[in-house]
Amino acid sequence: MGLIYSIGWQKSFGKKNKLRVNPYMMTGGFWPFGISDTRDQFYRITTLGLNFHYDLIKYKALSLVTTVGAFGNYSRGLLGTGGWPEANHNQSEYFHSIYFGNNMSLGLGINPGKSRFALELRPINIHLGTNHFILGYLMLGVNIKLTK
Fold first, then answer.
1. Could you give all domains of the chain from N- to C-terminal order, each with its CATH number?
2. Rounded to whole angstroms, how far apart are CA atoms 108 and 105?
3. Do residues 136 and 117 make contact, with C-beta atoms less than 8 angstroms apart?
4. What's the CA gap between 44 and 25, in Å, rounded?
């Protein structure tokens, strides 16, 4: 389990602004909440990426949004906390790895035209990368419009 934070910039294209380009940076931390059948795992991620969002269906302020993109990820952390006697493993291991891959998502967007804020609810977010890297998460996003 963990929390992920993301910050980015977004530029819209087209007459109806249905296509958006979004470079971003994401960071987060994870811990072994509720997992008891493996050794403890504490780790952090930092990701730089580029997403392309497209409104598949748009009705007034509500839209069904799909996303495809590419990313680079740096992961680091601690595996084990010095004791997992059931598996005859009594050591901790530090790790750090770099991954590259692609991502996709699907969700809802709420973008009131006169408001400076837009909301996103993306329940499906999947990152697949090199060396079996997999990241899945639920996202609630708040976008702040700098210009109207």
1. 2-144 (2.40.160)
2. 10
3. no
4. 14
